[in-house]
Amino acid sequence: MAYFQMFMHARAYGEPDNGAGWSPEFGDKDREAVDFERDDHKDRGVSGRHIKIVRFDRVPTQRQIEAKRNELNGQ
Q1: Domain of 41, in residue numbers
Q2: 6 neighbors 35 (Cβ within 8 angstroms)
Q3: I want to staple 75 with a disulfide (CB 3.0 to 4.6 A). Which of 5, 35, 48, 70 is the partner?
């Protein structure tokens, strides 16, 4: 069963990056729940460019989420 993980960039709410870059924000097996969470952030002024939703084939381990975060951050 697929799992969807939303990542948000540190600058999403106008904060300085401070090297944090992308970080995991919310994940769920239900894509609609993740889309709802994304839309909530967008309604509060977050640009779509500061949000990424990544699909995993199954529920990821913390290590897999961290690996994806590192990949998004170019590490």
Answers
A1: 3-72
A2: no
A3: 70
